[in-house]
Amino acid sequence: MVGVLSNRVDRQDVKAGDHIYSWRTAYIYAHHGIYVGDGMVIHFTRAAGHEIGTGTFLDSFLFSSSPVATTDGPPCQKCGHLMRREGVIMSCLNCFLDGGNLYLFDYAVSPAFFLAKARGGTCTLATSDPYDAVIHRARYLLDNGFGIYCLFKNNCEDFAIYCKTGLLVETAFSVGRSGQLASLTAAFSAVASSPLRFLTTSAGGLAIVTSGMYCVGRYVSDIGVRRDVVKVPVERLVEHNTLVASVAPPQATETDVTAVQGGGGSPS
Known about the structure:
Layout (H helix, E strand, L loop, with lengths): L18 E6 L4 E9 L2 E6 L11 H6 L24 E6 H5 L5 E2 L6 H6 L14 H14 L11 H10 L1 E3 L9 H14 L10 H19 L7 E3 L2 H14 L6 H9 L6
Antiparallel strand pairs: 1-2, 1-5, 2-3, 3-4, 6-7
């Protein structure tokens, strides 16, 4: 277990099957992956500039997760030939870190340790599976995919946590497994609870109540204590994703849209 103040580790301290991450853009967001040995990392990403799907500058400013080497400059000598632009990819540790520091995600922490880590997305109460199972899931998903990238439901942290635990969230309306999103949701919920101001007579008291709500929100959203999770074999997960993709409605083309809007004929 790493320290309460920082999860930063040296490269020689990580081993195959570890869940690692690196902070991006002034510590606003972290990118997660599974270290598989030989200086290589398997991680889940969306094409650079489209990480949250808004089509705006927020995609590249807030939530950039694609290694720079996939889009700019010459390909990496170690992993450039392995690179895909999006989805589950394998890259070398240098490209994964993209100039950032290396951090180790902690599993099976105590509730006290979990709550002491004020920033979400750094640890979980859930227990990790053996390293061989973790690596098997990561490599299987490298070959078969992890579905469609979605910041709120299916992001890089969700991928890494699934590889480590095999757990999926059953509830349709939830924020997935990501501790970062759970932390953000808890913060918004605490701030939005304006009626709390009537429960206290001082700013200090309100701060304590709000902080308490934030901690409770993070705790109950953690994959290690949620009741809406189920263990799913990676082969079954891929079968499910393949089935969903096969029955998904086709995307409307420009011709289809024109036909729906005003009749399909050409202008006379």
